[in-house]
Write a structure and sequence with these properties.
about 30% helix; about 20% strand; about 80 residues; alpha+beta
Length: about 80
């Protein structure tokens, strides 16, 4: 997993701007906390991928990011 994550970091440093980024889940900043299950202690949920995507989102030049794991707010636009 660490090698794949490093590839994403290299992509941010070496590639031109992206028109669209697609991912299953969203960067941590955009998690729809209002949709979280009320009875589930969120401190027990692994958010490694969301935090990683947050790092990528911060460093990537993109126009639109689409995700669907929460079945709501499926895109974030920059600019």
């Amino acid at each position: 997993m660490k090698k794949k994550m490093e590839l994403g970091r290299k992509l941010c440093r070496n590639e031109a701007p992206f028109d669209l980024v697609l991912s299953h889940t969203c960067p941590y900043l955009y998690e729809p906390t209002d949709l979280f299950l009320a009875g589930l202690d969120q401190s027990t949920v692994d958010s490694t991928m969301e935090r990683y995507l947050g790092e990528i989102e911060f460093n990537l030049d993109y126009k639109r990011w689409a995700f669907g794991s929460f079945s709501c707010r499926p895109a974030v636009s920059m600019g």
